[in-house]
């Protein structure tokens, strides 16, 4: 009996970590247990390629731009250019990832969909991510480089990027599509740079905006947000400028190795459900390795602390809470300044998921109701059965989300 176990157990363990190099993509979750022999598995060059290689293979044209923010960060923008476009569209990514979000669905990627539909497509990157490690005077090894939250991303990065895109495309207003962190920072930008946003943006699409959530919207695991986002913070819990996802850290390497090579991809999915909500339209098996790959961008813990403050206090969407003394110095008040949503002038369209545990339907509703009435002319959409992650990699995302945006854009006159 013992010897049988001695043989079987290592075999079972080995099976859980089948090398997945030659056949890195499977059409079924079961296929990942046997990538060599399963007819469901094949080699997908996108998984090993960089962003420009991927755009080159599927579309054939791309440009790379660099823009400087008012506070000295140098951001990389990617463009899939189009002559005489129907409109100019700018995508801003979510947390722990970067512009690759929009090209990580192979030939049916979000960016390609809009490009094929006739749009000039720009992909934003925020400070500190995989493509943005430059600053005029600071170095990413200095803590001060990482001293930011969604506030600075909204106030500086979105401002500089949108201004640049508008100026480089003939000066017409552009369309902004922000997902999760990109939607939160979009809301920051639209509220405190309200005139600028109204002059530059024709429509702001906020997908899962995550700005008024509270713990009670995470239904079955009460504090998943806190636990998940602070796992690495436990290493140095006191330091908000701690860099999460640092690619050279040993524990990040281990987690990434496990996530990439673990054969039970469904287990990865169920793990994600705990934090982002269950889903009727889970990430397609083909896309799971790509999903893992593009979620490796660095960010400071301060961003999740800021979200945590929104969650833990009372769902108030306001600036970073430093403690009464420093608040008084920075904001002139013991309490952090709320974002003036009532100032928003740019038309907003909110999309959120029915099963989202991070930005629960109540929270999205609350944001919507706080917007001035004339900015909500295009309404909102709750996507049936979707969780937080499905917006980028869930099944039927093109029908359920992106074709809806295209239809909306067709209704709006984009040429003024
Ligand atoms: C993408 O590739 C798949 C498989 O080759 C094909 O079935 C599908 O039609 C392609 N989609 C587009 C938009 O080209
Ligand atoms: C981070 O920014 C805050 C607010 O501007 C400032 O008070 C603090 O000193 C900064 N910390 C570092 C390490 O740069
Ligand atoms: C944790 O962060 C604090 C504040 O920045 C710093 O003083 C301390 O040295 C850090 N501890 C470790 C173990 O890195
Ligand atoms: C919405 O209404 C307010 C108050 O009447 C006005 O100041 C603002 O310019 C309007 N915004 C738009 C986008 O029409
Ligand atoms: C959370 O619960 C509190 C108290 O029960 C309630 O006042 C608040 O509206 C709830 N928030 C959300 C977003 O559901």
From TrEMBL:
The active site is at 180 (nucleophile), 356 (charge relay system), 388 (charge relay system). Residues 62-105 form the Partial AB-hydrolase lipase domain. One of its GO terms (biological process) is lipid catabolic process. Gene3D superfamilies: alpha/beta hydrolase (3.40.50.1820). Keywords: Glycoprotein, Hydrolase, Lipid degradation, Lipid metabolism, Signal. One of its GO terms (molecular function) is hydrolase activity, acting on ester bonds. InterPro entries: AB_hydrolase_fold (IPR029058), AB_hydrolase_lipase (IPR006693), Lipase_euk (IPR025483). Residues 1-16 form the signal peptide. Belongs to the AB hydrolase superfamily. Lipase family. This is Lipase.
């Amino acid at each position: 009996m013992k010897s049988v176990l001695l043989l079987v157990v290592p075999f079972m363990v080995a099976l859980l970590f089948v090398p997945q190099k030659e056949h890195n993509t499977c059409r079924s979750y079961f296929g990942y247990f046997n990538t060599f022999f399963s007819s469901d598995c094949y080699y997908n060059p996108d998984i090993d390629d960089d962003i420009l290689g991927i755009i080159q293979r599927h579309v054939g044209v791309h440009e790379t731009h660099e823009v400087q923010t008012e506070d000295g960060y140098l951001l990389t923008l990617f463009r899939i250019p189009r002559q005489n476009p129907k409109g100019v569209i700018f995508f801003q990514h979510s947390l722990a990832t970067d512009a690759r979000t929009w090209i990580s669905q192979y030939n049916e990627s979000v960016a390609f969909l809009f490009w094929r539909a006739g749009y000039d497509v720009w992909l934003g990157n925020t400070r500190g991510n995989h493509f943005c490690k430059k600053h005029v005077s600071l170095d990413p090894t200095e803590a001060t480089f990482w001293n930011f939250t969604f506030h600075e991303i909204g106030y500086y990065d979105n401002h500089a990027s949108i201004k640049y895109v508008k100026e480089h495309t003939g000066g017409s207003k552009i369309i902004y599509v922000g997902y999760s962190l990109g939607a939160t920072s979009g809301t920051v930008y639209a509220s405190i740079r309200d005139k600028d946003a109204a002059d530059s943006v024709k429509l702001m699409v906020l997908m899962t905006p995550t700005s008024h959530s509270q713990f009670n919207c995470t239904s079955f695991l009460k504090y998943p947000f806190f636990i998940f986002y602070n796992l690495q913070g436990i290493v140095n819990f006191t330091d908000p400028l701690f860099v999460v996802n640092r690619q050279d850290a040993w524990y990040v390497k281990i987690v990434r190795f496990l996530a990439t090579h673990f054969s039970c991809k469904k287990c990865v999915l169920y793990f994600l459900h705990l934090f982002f909500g269950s889903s009727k339209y889970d990430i397609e098996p083909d896309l799971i390795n790509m999903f893992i790959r593009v979620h490796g961008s660095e960010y400071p813990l301060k961003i999740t602390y800021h979200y945590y403050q929104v969650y833990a206090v009372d769902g108030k969407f306001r600036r970073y809470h430093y403690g009464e003394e420093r608040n008084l110095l920075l904001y002139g008040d013991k309490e952090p300044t709320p974002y003036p949503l009532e100032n928003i002038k740019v038309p907003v369209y909110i999309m959120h998921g029915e099963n989202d545990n991070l930005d629960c339907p109540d929270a999205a509703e609350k944001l919507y109701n706080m917007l001035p009435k004339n900015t909500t002319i295009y309404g909102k959409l709750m996507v049936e059965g979707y969780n937080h992650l499905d917006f980028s990699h869930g099944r039927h995302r093109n029908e359920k989300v992106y074709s809806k945006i295209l239809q909306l854009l067709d209704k709006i006159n984009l040429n003024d």
